[in-house]
Structure formats: C-alpha cells, structure tokens
Amino acid sequence: MKNPLRVHICVVGFELDRISKAAIMKNADKVYLISQEKNDKGKEYLNENKKRLENEGITVVIKLIGSISDLSDLLSVIKKIIAEQEKENYIYINLSSGSTLSAVAGIISSMMLERDRNIIPYYVKPKRYFEDFDENNKEKLRKAYNGLKPRSIGVEEISEIPTFPMRLPNKDLITVLQYLQRMNGPVTKKDLIDFSKEDDHLRTIRDKNRYLAGKLSDISKNSSLDKDLDESKQKARDYAWLDQNIISKLKDEWNLIDIEKIGKFTCIKLNDKGKKMLDFLND
Known about the structure:
Blueprint: E1 6-11, H1 17-25, E2 30-36, H2 43-55, E3 59-65, H3 71-84, E4 90-94, H4 100-113, E5 118-125, E6 128-129, H5 135-144, E7 152-153, E8 157-160, H6 171-183, E9 187-188, H7 189-198, H8 200-209, H9 226-253, E10 257-262, E11 265-270, H10 272-282
Parallel strand pairs: 1-2, 1-4, 2-3, 4-5
Antiparallel strand pairs: 5-8, 6-7, 9-11, 10-11
Helix pairs in contact: 1-2, 3-4, 6-10, 7-8
C-alpha cells in the first residue's frame, strides 16, 4: 500500500452518501467505520457503506465501541485509530456522518492531536434531505438505496474545517495526575513530595527547578546545626516547588484537582474534569 495514505474516520449513523460517496470523492485509501457493538440500529448502513467503499478498492476497517452516544467511547476509539497511523498519513475526520456528539468528538480529537499529525476534519453538505421528498420519490429512493432510508441524499460540497491546537498539561502535571488516579483518593503534599523523589522525570525537574521556586523565608543564621539548616532549606524548597509548579497549575490554571483540609493536612485529589482528561490521555 502506498504512503502517505489518506485515512478517513467516520462514525456511522443513518447516512450513506455523506460517508462512502464523500470518502470516494476525496480519494480515500482507507476508511475506518465506527459503529456500536450492541443494539446497533444503523447496522444496515454500516454494511452498505462498507460494500460501497470496497467496491471502489478502498480498504475498510470496522471499529465497534460500547456506545456511539458516549463521548468517552468516541474520543477513545478516534484517538486509538490516529495512534495506529504512520506519522506521514493524512487523517480525515468526517464530522457529518454521525450525531452532533460524534462531531464534537472529532473536533476535540483534531484539536488535541493535530500538533504531531496531519489531521483534517471535514463537513459534507448534502444535496437534499430525505424528508424533503414527496412520498412517491421517497419510495423510488428506497429502491435506489437497497431499501434503506438515509437522512440525506447526494453530496453538494465537502468543506475542510480549520482547527487550532488545543493546549494540554505538560508531562510534569500529567505524571502527577496519573499518580493521583492510581492512589484513588486524597493525598497529602508530603505524599507528592515523596513521589517526586521516586519518579525519574519529576525528580529531575524538581532538583533542577526547586531552587527557583519562590522567595523562601530566611532561616536564622544562629541555627546551632548546619545540617538542620540545610534540611530545612531543602524541605522549604521542595514545598515551594510543589506549590508553584504543580499544585497551583493543576488547581488555578487547569482546574483538574480539588484541595481540602483533612485534619492538619492539606490534601489533593482529582476532580471530575481531571478524571475526564485522564480518560482521554491514558487510552
């Protein structure tokens, strides 16, 4: 198979021309058809689109998910499909082939992943909608479409949709989020400091940057033990680094964590937004 490939991703609803005809018009080499594993009301449309595409020599891959009405399922499968592609491939995401939710999933995926990939979302404008025809012509269309009743007929125009990169948390923040997810409950600042000493990436970043973290209070020069002085400075710098470079960014900049007082401890835990962010990033 030639490279780079023109790869299309389409969520299958109750459309034919907006899926298969559009992909053929855009010279697709490979098409991923996303459908529902169980209770799939659009199965006949899935099969018909597959047949149409394969008749044109286009490779078809079917991906079945739990529900095409679940944004997490949609985001997960689109991300996995994109991850399978060679870097040089052109990836086209059809925003008009399924529901509004599938269009949202396509746009989010494009914005979050386009920095490293050639991702082009597009919208297919139909010539007419099935419901616009009178009953006599509807019956003719059913026969022409092998007994099916697609929501739209023909392709009037295919428009590529411009997107802009969506900023993601950096590796330091994602590493901490994943730790919070594994702990599955509130953790203290001391827990996070200890974790930063164990994790290779965080330890390198912490040791490099903690001396820059904030203005530390002067520790009395009259301390009787230089060792105690050094340990106090190190501890203060660790907490300053944690507050300024991790906690404040996750809380105030990204709103991915909640902070609460449990007894005398300040505890940190993932909030719902943080959990959803990881659902996408971890797949």
